Amino acid sequence: MSVEAYGPSSQTLTFLDTEESVLLGADTQGSEYDFTDFTLPSQTQTQGPTQSQLDNQVNGPAVVLQNGDDPVVKTSQLLAELNFEEDEEDAYYTKDLPLHACCYCGIHDPACVVYCNTSKKWFCNGRGNTSGSHIVNHLVRAKSKEVTLHKDGPLGETVLECYNCGCRNVFLLGFIPAKADSVVVLLCRQPCASQSSLKDINWDSSQWQPLIQDRCFLSWLVKIPSEQEQLRARQITAQQINKLEELWKENPTAALEDLEKPGVDEEPQHVLLRYEDAYQYQNIFGPLVKLEADYDKKLKESQTQENITVRWDLGLNKKRIAYFTLPKTDSDMRLMQGDEICLRYKGDLAPPWKGIGHVIKVPDNYGDEIAIELRSSAGAPVEIPQNFQVDFVWKSTSFDRMQSVLKTFAVDETSVSGYIYHKLLGHEVEDMVIKCQLPKRFTAQGLPDLNHSQVYAVKTVLQRPLSLIQGPPGTGKTVTSATIVYHLARQGTGPVLVCAPSNIAVDQLTEKIHQTGLKVVRLCAKSREAIDSPVSFLALHNQTRNMD
């Protein structure tokens, strides 16, 4: 490129070729720069802080580097020897906390914490990162209702209970101002706060207010921690609270730090709207089925009841029946007819005995008794009523079937039609319309007339390979389903299999379909054959028994 390209003021550049022995610049590595001893300047050589100021900042010896010492290594060693004081706020909730500290966030002001009488743990009235106070969060998740205030709080060690009936359910408790302005009376919502006798002692029931408002205890009852206190406290999320509550069910002494242990914080994969293939579908739903099975098993096995009194009887089929009453609990488990129960004798008046039977009666409006029919009464201590133990038998049949179906679906694409296969995986599939002869009258004989939305549902289902009908209770889903079965059977394409998630739902569908005049066979487990129901005469074993 020419020089003129850079303009008239450009000058010619000249490069000098030097010999290797000639160095351009300073030779900082020459022998005259070798130092055999190097010392940092002292305070007498510089104009700087005084000796006392240095002592207040650094507690340690002077830094002296000898020949061959690495200054970086030497400095790192000295820094490691220095003692730095931990910031007061950082250490506030990492040091040993008192026993009454909130198990979630660590706040331990006696005026701010409440003791849960059921779990034996303390919680504060602050919200932190959650929508409700920590104590209310715990009470809801642990299904607890009774609390006690701290002895050093403004109101002292007080168990919150109704002044009239002694009810301790804090979700029912409220207060009414008494005659004296500085006195309030705690009363439960029903029936005490609505009694007319309150007027005789000048208590205005219209002024009743709950103790818990906006998911927090009232501030005059339990102080709400200041915003500064909550910012200094240990930060915990709602997700961590859920996991900690689940961990407490197995290990009541667990702490928030235990969530960091391997395997504790592992979560299953989230359910997707679309799956690549059936293997991915199985890999996501398989662990979820196992989680539900483990929870159901743990729930059943934790319901063991001891010191049960049994009333013995003999059924018409000559099988021994045991009647007993179980104490009421807050468990999520519901006892159903057909469930298996193990009855054990734990007393000293007879040899140890164990018998398994299925439930034939559950608590109802006529009584709280439970009745089980024993498979075998051999050795049963029928003359002894006391010292029995009841164990709930967990059966994995339903969950094993789900896992088996998932496996089949993953390895065999032909297990279902191609349309349903891709629909289940969330793939975009062209809508299919089944050509069929629609009935002139959609209402089935023996069933109530259908409204417009129910007629549209029946018409749509008859023309689609897969349908979903949704609606709140009382909208006629059972009648609509029975009508659909009636028209499918009338098309002459073969038998129709009707399934439902519970025995009660199957009985209701069986009854409605039978009213249409169709031939119905009710299939049930052998353990339910002895249970009476409105459709028992349609059960397979009874129809077989009545055949010529």
UniProtKB/TrEMBL annotation:
Main location: cytoplasm
Pfam family, one: UPF1_1B_dom
InterPro entries reported in the protein's UniProt record: DNA2/NAM7-like, DNA2/NAM7_AAA_11, P-loop_NTPase, UPF1_1B_dom, UPF1_CH/ZBD
UniProt-annotated location(s): Cytoplasm
Region feature (C3H): 102-134
SUPFAM superfamilies: P-loop containing nucleoside triphosphate hydrolases
C4 as annotated region, ranges: 162-192
Keyword set, alphabetical order: ATP-binding, Cytoplasm, Helicase, Hydrolase, Metal-binding, Nucleotide-binding, Zinc, Zinc-finger
Region (CC/SHH/C): 116-144
Location of the Upf1 domain: 94-251
Family listed: Belongs to the DNA2/NAM7 helicase family.
Protein name in UniProt: Regulator of nonsense transcripts 1
Species this protein is from: Characodon lateralis
Lineage: Eukaryota, Metazoa, Chordata, Craniata, Vertebrata
Name of the gene: RENT1
